[in-house]
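Human:
Focus on the backbone:
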Amino acid sequence: MPTEAKAGKIEELTDKLGRSSIAILVQTQGLSVKDMNELRKKMRAAKVEFQIAKNTLLRIAAERNQMTGVDNKIFNGQTAVAFGYDDEVAATKAVTDYLSTSRVAVLKSAILGGRSLTAQEVEGISKIKGGKDQSKAEVVGTIQGPLASAYGLFTAPLRDLCYVLQAHSEQLNSGATAE
């Protein structure tokens, strides 16, 4: 039976995991207080919430959110969690940018869409140029181009027929007024 403090922390983590679009797990063991404060400052600037969490409480929070695709092996060692609420790509970029300069902190894993990601998958997400909105716009643009061409191709005969009928109608009307 968890203590009242642990139960409150579990509720807090459950809420944060439920609201976040991505939760990035980082091992910060060995970071100095100065480096940890710098990391927190960079995370705040990127609109990413960063906190230390106990693995057991984080695992329970994931279970309460019915995240069945999460591998329980990611909950080991000292863990800090970066919660990204808006843009998964921006959150992963903020974390991986800091970790590339740090010699101590290590990217462990992430939770995205109720399943766990490896460190390599998280780094792959961080390499997406732009962000989530730009990626969506590129997909829409890729789909829209051929659809617009197909629409133009299919409507051209009907449109051309309308132009011919309109020209013929104008020709008949101009001939009737001339007499």
